[in-house]
Design a protein that fits this description.
Layout: E1 19-20, H1 23-32, E2 36-42, E3 45-56, E4 59-65, H2 69-74, E5 79-92, E6 100-114, H3 117-131, H4 135-138, H5 144-149, E7 150-165, E8 183-186, H6 208-211
Antiparallel strand pairs: 1-7, 2-3, 2-5, 3-4, 4-7, 5-6, 5-8, 6-7
Length: about 220
């Protein structure tokens, strides 16, 4: 199993046993996320902006309007920090101190480069397929005008690490006999039934590739 090199800035220090650096774990968290958050520095001020993404191997593709600050900065070659987070449960401990969340998260680092031509078109396909497999062939391809208005940035992941909490309450022994309830409030994010656009001029039943996405747990 391939792993990302553990660097000083990706090593999990707080409860290190929750850290994971293998590609399978890191990529599964990235792929289940519908958006990422991209952090960068502009004019000595930090920014963190949500963005649609796709992944192919160790390369992330970021997609947005060419006129946006995010695309200009992320494609400039500056160092980027890109994060992905899923909340799976609220952990209600007897003690407020030990209350927490179950989660899956990834912090990735790399530098971005703007794509053009065939690379850009391929990256857009990766992004579309990441959101809904089969959608690239199930929708109209971008026009030249739309391509000019769109920017796609490729970020080769240099370092990445995941951190996961996936267990129950961890109360102190002296609190176990106390009068306080403890347990989990599970959180689930699932793709629900498709809602056809009211202005459809074709059969309103969603195509097979759309229906296949229904029920997916992220």
């Amino acid at each position: 199993m391939s792993e990302y090199e553990v660097a000083k800035h990706t090593k999990v220090r707080r409860i290190p046993e929750r850290g994971h650096y293998d590609e399978e774990t890191v990529h599964s968290i990235i792929d289940a996320a519908l958006i990422c958050h991209v952090g960068f520095i502009e004019d000595e001020r930090p920014f963190v902006i949500p963005c649609i993404h796709g992944r192919e191997g160790r390369t992330l593709y970021l997609h947005g309007a060419k006129a946006s600050r995010l695309m200009a900065e992320s494609g400039s070659g500056k160092p980027l920090c890109i994060t992905f987070t899923h909340v799976d449960a609220i952990v209600l401990a007897r003690s407020l101190f030990h209350s927490s969340m179950n989660y899956r998260s990834v912090v990735a680092f790399g530098q971005g480069r703007v794509l053009e031509g065939d690379e850009k078109m391929h990256a857009l396909e990766v992004v579309a397929e990441g959101l809904c497999p089969g959608r690239w062939d199930g929708a109209r391809e971008p026009t030249e005008k739309e391509m000019r208005a769109t920017s796609v940035v490729a970020v080769d992941i240099e370092h990445a690490g995941a951190k996961i909490r996936d267990h129950g309450v961890g109360d102190d022994e002296e609190d176990l006999d106390g009068p306080w309830w403890a347990g989990l409030l599970p959180v689930e994010r699932r793709i629900l039934d498709a809602i056809p656009s009211p202005d459809l001029r074709i059969e309103s039943t969603p195509p097979e590739h759309v229906q296949a996405r229904v029920g997916d747990v992220l």
